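Here we describe the complex-level prediction in full. Unlike the single-chain runs in Section 2.1, the two entities below were treated as one system.
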Amino acid sequence: MDGQTAGDDLLSAIRPEIAQLPESGILIVANYGREKEGLLPLWFGEGDLPTPDFIGEAATTALKAGNTFYTYQRGIPPLRQALSDYLERLYSVPVATDRLTVTTSGMQAIMLTMQMLVGPGDEMVAVSPVWPNIFSAARITGGTVRQVATERREDGWRLDLDRLVDACGPKTRAIFINSPSNPTGWIMPEEDMIALRDFARGRGIWIIADEVYGRFVYDGPEGSRAPSFLEITEPDDRLIVINTFSKNWSMTGWRIGWVVAPPALGRVYENLVQFNTSGTTTFLQHGAATALNDGDPTVDALVERCRKGREIVCSRLETLPNIRLTRPAGAFYLLFGVEGETDSIALAKSLIDRAGVGLAPGSAFGEGGEGYLRLCFAGSHAHLEKAMDRLVPALGG
Amino acid sequence: MDGQTAGDDLLSAIRPEIAQLPESGILIVANYGREKEGLLPLWFGEGDLPTPDFIGEAATTALKAGNTFYTYQRGIPPLRQALSDYLERLYSVPVATDRLTVTTSGMQAIMLTMQMLVGPGDEMVAVSPVWPNIFSAARITGGTVRQVATERREDGWRLDLDRLVDACGPKTRAIFINSPSNPTGWIMPEEDMIALRDFARGRGIWIIADEVYGRFVYDGPEGSRAPSFLEITEPDDRLIVINTFSKNWSMTGWRIGWVVAPPALGRVYENLVQFNTSGTTTFLQHGAATALNDGDPTVDALVERCRKGREIVCSRLETLPNIRLTRPAGAFYLLFGVEGETDSIALAKSLIDRAGVGLAPGSAFGEGGEGYLRLCFAGSHAHLEKAMDRLVPALGG
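The structure predicted for the assembly as a whole is:
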């Protein structure tokens, strides 16, 4: 057999669902442009600030003290306590440690939850456009995802709640809500959250709330935050909240997240952690606890930086007659449309060639995303200004 | 609803396969004895040496240098190169970097492989007794595991290869071999590996080789190692090799492992990493590379320490007439039987109460394990001597 034949043979010998996992549209574009000299990449979901020193030092101290052994599957007690304190400080509701599990990334929090809720024959309804990893995680566990797209109006992105409710059928086990949304910045209004909670309670459907960007909101005073499902539910509600250290404290490379679940599911998550990765790096958890306990000013400063980043990119692109955008209410992305463009991958590639700027294609984010491009404004302001100087003329401004 | 009712209701609202994941028999015993004052725990699979400083320093340096961003899903290039160099040094066969994926623990290497190969309706055949997490990982992905037990003879544990072959039916997608074995120390002879390779090739069955303890062998000269499936296969064979940094370099708390697979599966593992955890901690990978490049003396010293640990525990227990044991050829566990005892969980609990020593019950390891207890001899010699001083009289010596 030659190499190609051998490769095809091997791919036919694994589960077809896994062999056919789609390549991320973001990566298709990133791989196209990654090596281009002088490229300004705004396609991924992270800023350009390294983790603050005080967080790294706490982890280093724990490492030097010999915290290099196996530890609690659900996370070390000081970290779970710090999480409980943080959530209560933020939302003014108690979140007991028996509801908390530390995970190896927000992504893992999602995967464990898919394993628990969305198996073969099960459906999940997700509000789109949405981070495409959601679709693939559900596909790996055997489930299917039905999408309900938000729509861009003059005053922002909007979800038609009736359409979401209508999309839930007899096989629907869970509804996935990412608010503030990656990629649109949409924030679900609290009255909609309450209506959805009541609908889900009546039907016994789980709500999976990805609240990773909950601190990144722009239209209120400094220190504002998005409403959380934690505020309008009871501990025994069928609610799973997904979160991560990645965005708030510039810790993308650390791979630590957490999940909030009903207390009765504690042993279930303990098992799932055990059989997926057997826990999160012991000494790094001390750094994560320090981020929670001492990192509020870090988050506030980062959100302010992003607020100015949003101003930079929106004020420049708003001047262009062929650009469709509304300022994102939250998260740190702008999803904007270009008049007449219907192939966002081709457009993103063309902007790499013509402008030297890397954007993510909207089509990667599912229904409602095609015709749009996603731009991350979490980076430095000088970097964003430079990218705008290139993008505006390339887009016809 | 009261708390109990609410909990039952929630557990009935998740996938039954997940709700019913069995609690680890090791944890049942450990939870029974964990808080007992003065207990000597030998139930888990780790020693008592913290990670060597030179490895921690490499990670700390990378952290301080700002390596805190997202990185390659399959691992940073210097780590994959160090893995390739290490494996070639050890086995004198080339293992190209396109076959290597860094994972968040050996456990994750197993889970990703289960997702890829062992879905609903699929069967895996595993040589038992075996680390129980294997069963649960396959159960989470929807598969079933058929066990073929090794048997203890005067000269060591033995596998009847014909029984392994006979256990493979039309639904068998993979054969799981952990050699050297946790918990028995059994090492699969190279001629059996070749025969199994030929059988698997003929039937198109995958071999999953868990070679985590490949460096821990005791009956040859210093620097010996167990035979590896890497030595007797081609890159395009249906072979997945699982490994971890945990045991060789005392890095259990780090959560880093790796997998060797055919080059054609590179993108598959990249996707699986992406959708399970989105990668392994960036700066820690620099520590792992240093472990591989500079850590050979560390491994040799640790194996020597375990060789003496094996001598301590075996020489003491061999004197007891009611103890059934053969010296383990590899890994760092002794699985020993006690005449007349058929309930290893009850026996392990009783030894906590009567001797203050924590052992793992053999029944946790599947077929062939009941009636035995597993003792980890990777700890300090003083600790092992003290445990023997307590165990020998309690076992009737």
